[in-house]
Amino acid sequence: MGKDKLRRFEENLTFRNLVQPAFEEVFRTDHRLKGRWRQDFFGNDRPIVLELGCGRGEYTVALGRMFPETNFIGVDIKGARMWRGAKTATEEGLDNVAFLRTRIEFITSLFGPREVNGIWITFPDPQLKKNRIKKRLTAPAFLGYYAAFLAPGAPVHLKTDSQHLHRYTKAVIDRNGLTTEAACDDIYGTGYADDILSIRTAYETQFLKQGLPITYLRFRLDGRKEFEAPVFEPDEELS
Fold it and tell me: Which of 19, 45, 78, 162 has CB 3.0 to 4.6 Å from 126, enough for a Cys bridge?
């Protein structure tokens, strides 16, 4: 492991805004903050919005700047990347921004019923291989996780460069009769991007330089708890 990565891991331990649960705190058990993020961590009763697979936390931090009356939590397993967001939020005094280092498969151990008011999924791995489809963050199993803690009417946002993931997620939405609030397969080319959608991560900047269109979906789970997989896997798009 490189010295820079070790330094970041050590500095992560000093950030008040970074929670790093041990495996035994979240595996088949409830974490102490589950259902208590507002009271015990943020010290307020404001809405909570998650960014799943947040990477460096650029979107989480930018949303925190734009909406000081909302609490934002970036979730990822990569501590060395998350260091950047935690450090920036600390330096800027963004008390409404936090980071959680954990596997998203453990997310229901960390948030209680109706505790979360929205989810952002920005440029996740599209998991194109056939044996990885269930790992997509908009796959039915993951929607089931989110349903356990989303408040009624809370939106799920997906912003991605992957046309395949965009279409797959639309197929999941259609298969389960979910409400689509917004859909666009090229937010910049169509002029659809507003100030929020125009937040650019390092990955997005790279994709745009490659000429890839950026897509967006916003949908609701409509109170459903279980979800079915769509019949949708064009072989030519899978590797």
Answer: 162
Q: For residues 158 and 172, what is the distance between their CA atoms, to the nearest angstrom?
A: 13
Q: Distance (Å, rounded) from C-alpha 34 to C-alpha 151? A: 14
Could you give the count of Cα atoms lying within 13 Å of 88 in the half-sphere of its Cβ? 18
Q: Would you please indicate which residues are annotated as catalytic (active-site) residues? A: 125
- Encode pLDDT of 133-184 as tens digits: 999 999 999 999 999 999 999 999 999 999 999 999 999 999 999 999 999 9
The total number of residues shown for the chain amounts to 239
- Distance, in Å, from the CA atom of 26 to the CA atom of 106, rounded to the nearest integer, reads 6
The domain in which residue 221 lies consists of 3-237
Residue with tokens 């495996």: 23
Tokens read off for 40: 């015990």
CA angle at residue 89 from 88 to 90, to 5 degrees? 90
CATH number, domain at 103?
Answer: 3.40.50.150
Please count the structural domains in the chain. Answer: 1
Q: Model pTM? A: 0.94
